[in-house]
Structures are given as C-alpha cells and as structure tokens.
Amino acid sequence: MEFYKHSGNVELKQFDDENLLINIETGFYFRLNEVGNFIWPLLDGKQSNEEIIEKIVEEFDVQIEKANSDLFYLAQ
Amino acid sequence: MDIEKHVLLQLCRLIGGNSDFEPDLYANVKIDEEKLYQTCLYHQVLPFFYYFRDIFRKSFPSLSQDFFSKAKNYSIFNTTRLMVYENFLIEFDQQVSNAGIDYRLLKGIALAFEIYEEPYLRTFGDLDILILPDSLEIVNELLLQNGYFICEDLYSAFPTEIIKKYSFARHYIRKKPSILAVDVHLNLSGKLHPFQFDLMEFWNNSRDVEINESKFRTFNKEYTTVYLLYHAFKHYYFKLIWIIDVYEILSDDMDFDKLGKLIIKYNLVKMWNVFLNISRDLFGRIPGNADILDEKKYHSLKRHRIINKDSMLRGVLPYSPSIGRIILPLIYLPSFLQKVRYLLRQLFPPKDAIRDFYVNKSIMPDWSDYLKLRTKAILELIHHVK
Hints:
The complex is a heterodimer of chains A (76) and B (386).
Chain A: E1 10-15, E2 18-23, E3 29-31, H1 34-39, H2 49-60, H3 64-75
Antiparallel strand pairs in A: 1-2, 2-3
Helix pairs in contact in A: 2-3
Chain B: H1 3-15, H2 33-43, H3 46-51, H4 53-59, H5 65-98, E1 103-106, H6 108-114, E2 127-131, H7 136-145, E3 149-150, H8 160-165, E4 170-174, E5 180-185, H9 199-204, E6 206-211, E7 214-219, H10 221-234, H11 240-250, H12 256-265, H13 269-283, H14 309-314, H15 321-332, H16 336-347, H17 356-359, H18 367-385
C-alpha cells in the first residue's frame, strides 16, 4: 500500500477565501480547489492512497480514475 | 493631475483613514489600467488595491475585475515571498547565532510584520540586514555556503577592505531553489553619504520583532523612524511605499519627544518638516502627535517646490539620480560648511573609492588618472545641469 503525506517544505496558508499550498523553499504555490481542500487533510501518512481515493469517489461522485489522478496531481 | 494620480491619491487617503469619497465623482471616468498597474508596481502599492478593493470598486466603477485579480495575485505572491524569506531567515539566524554574530533587520520584512495590517501589503525586494563591520567575512562565508553570490552592481568591484572602510552595502543574490536577495549593510549610511549616524547608538537601542513565532532584532521604533526618514530622502522619495512606511510607523506607539531629539541630532529637521507637509497633502492628516520642528528655520507647513504631493505621485524628481545625489543634500544639509564639505567630497571622492580603478585594468590608481576621471565626471555634471 502507498501512503502520500505532507512534505516538510510545503505549508498550507489561508489567504482570505482561498487555501494555498506554498513551498517555503522555492516559493511555488498552488491554489486548492474544492477537491484539493478535501484531499489535503487526508494526506497525513496514516491513510493509504486507496482509502483516500475511496473517500474522494464517495464525496464527489466521480470515477476511480479521476479520483486517482486528482490525488496524484496534488501529491506532486 | 491625471486620473491615475487621483486613484493613487485616493489610496493614500484610505491609508490615512479617510474613506469619505464622492461615489459618483469618478463614475464615468476611463482609467488607463495598464498605466495604473505599472505605476502601482513602481510605487510598490499594488496589494493595497486588493486590501481596499470594496471601496475602490465603488469609487472607481470603471476599474475592471481583471485589475483587482492582478492585485490579488500580487498579494498572494507577496505572501509566498514572505514565507520563503521567513524560512531563510530562521536558518540564517541559527547559523549566525552559532557563529556568535549579531545582526539587525532593517526595513521591509520587519515593517511588513509589525506596522502593516497585513504583512502582504508591504512589498519588498531584498532582505536588508545590518551587521557590525567585523562580522563581514563570516557573514559573507555563510551566505556563499547558502548558495548566494555577490551581485554584479556598483559596489561588487570593491575589495572587502574598501567595503568596510566606506561602509558600502553588499548585495547578494541566490537563484536556487528560489530567487532571494540579501543586502548586507555595515552602517546606516555609507561613509561618503551626507548624513552620518552613530551606529552603536542605533545598535544598542534595539528590540525584538516577532515574525510569526520567531523573534529577530530590529531598532526601537524611534530609531527605525529616523532611519526610514533618511532612507526615503536618500532615494529622493521616489516610491510612495517609503512615505507610507514613515506614516504607518508614526501612527503606531511612538515617543515623539525622543524622536524629535533624534531628528535634530542627526540633522534631519528639514526632511521631517517636508515629510509632514507631504503627509498632510497625501494622507489628509499628520500621523500621531507628530509636529513640525524648528519653526524658526522652516516657518510653516508650506508646500515644497520640488518635493511635494505631486512629485510623490509622479514618482520622479525633475532631475536625474546622479544630479539629485548632489543637489538634494546641498539643499537639506543644515550648515554652509557641511554643504561645502559634501560638495567637495562628491566632486573629489577619495581615490580608493573610485570604482573605475577596480573594474578597468587599463586605468591605474594614480593621481593622473584620478584627475582625468574627476574632470570627466565634473564635465558630465555640468552637461546635465545645462
């Protein structure tokens, strides 16, 4: 089983109504959309990728492939 | 005054706490948004348009959503930048502490976290740190180890002993993993500058500034104000953000008696009075309990011919920086003797501070070449003045 978890260089920062993922070494940032906001707290290293994908499918009523690609995209 | 300047003036009034605008006054006015955007970048005030977006949307209904989106993006960029600098600063602080070196934070980042409602409002380019001259070699070594290199600029040609002798600042830049710039200062002004400060007085009047959960040393507020006032003057008040810095820090807790004494001690009375004049015109008020000093020499808050609200909003003075460097101190130095001494030093700087001797191997540092270079510089100056 694979586990994604937060990197030490990446911090979540709230900017008004948006959540940003900011790499504090490079300055690159990523604006979280609804799916991203759902996934981010789940990347705690305790829940497997399969469990997270299952939750995404359930929450957003999407195909497994779509949930998998969303998770992979965010984890990158 | 063109409409873009009206918009900037409105911004200043908002910073001054005045939001009573006539809502229909600018209803049908067309704004050149690209010009406004570039002007805001220049003055480093774009994030304020995001912060005050609701008021601006009402006051200037023709401003597009795209403009506010750009202001928001820039504010987010500032937020990420602050986090990157903060991250670097925590590591750097640990390294210099281990090396037994003390330093002070100047300007940008310290002001962003302390005197602005939101840190992202204070756009800044470099991290400015002040060290004691004896620490230069070790700090230089640490920065090089952290991936920084000395930036190619006016002072990069000078050897370390000249940098130390004349208190020139050294500019470092790092390109990976992100572009960061650090300016290392050895004093509050270079030895060839018209206004000199007692470094140890400032150094010993310091306090902690909190940046999120970390603490760093910076000057007490009265001393910071004196430095900001001087810094704005040194750069000919070209950017609004420098005036806003002084306005904001004065609106905070401040011992105005102590500040007044420092301003008089460091010959900044005229600059202070000019600042109050500008503050009244730009922000619609004078901050805190600030008051004019030395009224005998400067009778009233009369508008200054060169440095005034309009030149602030325009962003440039009617002469080049090289001419400004000579003319403004001549206007603002308090005594005739100081003016003469400054003019001579500008026209005939010390031989070992002439940059050409280090960058051009065909020019030898002898008196003959020195006089040739000075003659050339003076002729250029006369040409500019004409």
